[in-house]
Amino acid sequence: MSDSDFLPEGTLRGLPGPLPPGERILWRGAPSLSGVLLRAFHARLVMLWFAGTATVLAIGAAASGGPARALAVAGPTLLIGVAALGLLSFLAWLVHRTTVYTLTDRRMVLHVGIALPITLNLPLTRIESADLRLFSDGTGDIPLRLPPGERVAYLHLWPHARPWRVGRPEPMLRSVPEARSVVALLAPALAAQIEGSGEGVAKTSTRAVEPAATGRASAAPGRLATAGAR
To answer: What is the spatial distance between Cα 74 and Cα 61, in angstroms, rounded to a whole number?
Structure first.
C-alpha cells in the first residue's frame, strides 16, 4: 500500500487536494539523492573530519607503538565515520523519497518532512523572486523569496530552506535535477501571474554567480497557506 492510497480521489501525491478546474501542472520533481547528501548533510566534510581525526591518532600511536598500534587506535574512528556516512545516506534517501515539489501555472507546492510532513502552498502571486544556484552536475537550488510578513518556520522547512536566512526564511527547492529547465518554466509562470493581477510587468534577469547562475522574476501579492500532510 502506498501513501497515495490515503489521499482523496483525484489528488496527486504531494498536493493538498485535487487541482481546481483550469489549473494545470507544469512540473513535478524531488531533490536528487546526491545533492541532499553532499550539500544539505555535508557528507564530504563529515568524511574529511573522521579521516583527519583518524590520521592524527594513527600518527601519534605509530610513533610510540608501531603500525599495529596505529591501526588499533585509528580503526574505531574510521568505523564510526563509515557508520555516520551510512546514517547520513539513509536520511538523505528519506528526504529524497518523501519530498515532492509541484509547480502549476498558479502556485508552487512543497510537500516536505519525514516524521512530520507538511504541505506548503505558495501561490505565485506571493513569490517576490525565484533565484537559481546551478551546480556542475546540472542540479540546482531554487530559493523562493516571500513578501515581508509572510513567515514559515526555518526548522519546519529545513533542509528545504535557503541556508543562513533564519530571520526571514526562504523556502527552497533543494538540488532539483535539470534546475535550469525548472526555472525556465517558473519565470514565465510568475510573469503571467503579475500580468493577470494587473500589478505591472514582470522583469526577469540572469546573472553569473561563481560557480552558479541566478535568475529572478518578481511577483505580486496573493495568499500563502501551510497544511499538514494527509
So the answer is: 9
Q: Do residues 31 and 141 lie in contact, with contact meaning Cβ atoms separated by under 8 Å?
A: no
H helical segments located in the chain: 33-35, 43-98, 154-157, 179-197
Q: Which residues contact 16 (CB under 8 A, 6 or more apart)?
A: 109, 119, 121, 225, 227, 230
Q: Please state the domain extents for the chain.
A: 24-31+101-228, 39-94
Burial code (b: 16+ CB inside 10 Å, e: under 16) for 176-193 equals beebeebbeebbebbbeb
12-60: pLDDT as tens digits: 788 888 888 999 999 999 999 999 999 999 999 999 999 999 999 888 8
pLDDT digits (tens, 9 = 90+) for 149-179: 777 888 888 999 999 888 889 999 999 999 9
